[in-house]
Amino acid sequence: MFWSKLRSPEARRRRRRVVTLVAGGVLASAVVVATVTIVTLSRPAAQITSIDVRGSESLDPERLTTFLFDELAGRHFGLIPKTSSPLYPRAALTASLAEHFPRIQELSVRLTDPQTLRVNLTERTPAALWCGDIVPVGERPGHCYFMDGRGFIYARAPTFSGDPFERFYGPLTHGTPEGQQFVAPAEFVRLRAFWEELRARAVPIESVLIVDEENLELYHEAGPRLLVSRTDDLAEVAAAIPLVLANERLAGEALAEVAYIDLRFGNKVYLKDAAEPQEVGRSTPSTGQEAAER
Fold first, then answer.
1. Residue 179 pLDDT > 50
2. Which of 45, 179, 190, 192 is the most buried (most CB within 10 A)?
3. CATH architecture for residues 44-123
4. Residue 73 exposure: Cα atoms within 13 Å on the Cβ side
């Protein structure tokens, strides 16, 4: 009797009405909650209206502010403004700033109040220059770019009188220098320490070319290139170079007549006369003459 009543058409209609009413109530509640949420998050008092940029030196704060407001244009899901402080895209803003402004080394983005966004940044400090794929012969280098102490290329450098920074040359992975890593950070630190050791030993180097994964070329102020293996102990190479340059065959003006000095063969050192044909940036020591032993 009881089960027959539950299966009756009238009972089924009542159940459908109850389900419909409950579903309608849930839907209406959801609409109300969503509407209240959208209205609350869209209130002027909840919108980011000012951006405070701190720590910039070379970067223009107004340019950064304009960039950030452009990034905050539009709405989440077409409903809630991206400037709504509870939902502003902090991670996306941080990533976009780092991508478009390689000069920035450290960066934090946070709200100081519902309407103010604070950007604290630290700019990179120039440590050296990247000046192209190959070393120009008989002329000043073209456009150079600043690198920080870890070999990250971040901004075009002005033209300098003299050589206030170490100049490095070598290939990059793609065409735009800014935002690229010249070599691995640890390797760059190693190369700069090598250059500093040469400077301490009064070996005047104008620039360094990274030829490939295994070879370096050091450009001596007097003219010759010094060919060095990147896989060697560079501290030992730095100690050996002054001894090689002190060889009587390289005394006086003789050093300027040498195209290159090859130090990649253990205790054997090879010379190549500058009068012989040569291709800048390439090493062909098999035709050279032995100059000294390390």
1. yes
2. 192
3. Roll (3.10)
4. 6
